[in-house]
Automatic annotation (TrEMBL):
UniProt GO BP: phosphorelay signal transduction system
Species whose genome carries this gene: Hassallia byssoidea VB512170
Gene3D superfamilies reported in the protein's UniProt record: 3.40.50.2300
Domain Response regulatory: 5-122
Alphabetic keyword roster: Phosphoprotein
Keyword field contains Phosphoprotein: yes
Residues bearing the modification 4-aspartylphosphate: D55
Record InterPro entries: Bact_response_regulator, CheY-like_superfamily, Sig_transdc_resp-reg_receiver
CDD domains listed in its UniProt record: REC_RR468-like
Transmembrane segments: none
Lineage: Bacteria, Bacillati, Cyanobacteriota, Cyanophyceae, Nostocales
Segments forming a coiled coil: none
Protein name, as recorded: Response regulator
């Protein structure tokens, strides 16, 4: 299958950098980053990542809106999306599952466990 390509969409550059370094180092994946929902949608259309890690709380276009737009777009609707969020109660997990999301990852995350969490959610091997 080759190297996985992951798109990390988060308005915090620090989160983008930590996720990129960890996923490249631990899993050997190619990691693209985007600082906003709009940029994330554009990069998803162009680069067709194997998965998108999407922050829920972002200015301008939040993660929920971004996810809806990705799902409505034939070019991106098949790409699995995992939310990255500080708000992750049981009711949130249920709602994400109903939306078709395989999992959500809590912020702050353990950088060394991030690749494993993504791989588990998507049934990938590292």
């Amino acid at each position: 299958m080759g190297t996985k390509r992951i798109l990390v969409v988060d308005n915090e550059e620090y989160i983008q950098e930590v996720a990129k370094i960890c996923l490249e180092t631990v899993a050997g994946w190619e990691v693209l980053t985007a600082g906003s929902g709009l940029e994330g949608i554009k990069k998803a259309e162009i680069y067709q990542p194997d998965a998108i890690i999407l922050d829920v709380m972002m200015p301008e276009m939040d993660g929920m809106t971004t996810f809806s737009k990705l799902q409505a777009n034939p070019a991106t609707q098949a790409i699995p999306v995992i939310f990255l969020t500080a708000k992750i109660q049981t009711s949130d997990r249920r709602r994400y599952a109903q939306m078709g999301m395989p999992s959500a990852i809590a912020k702050p995350f353990n950088p060394l466990e991030l690749a494993g969490q993504i791989a588990n959610a998507l049934n990938w091997s590292i």
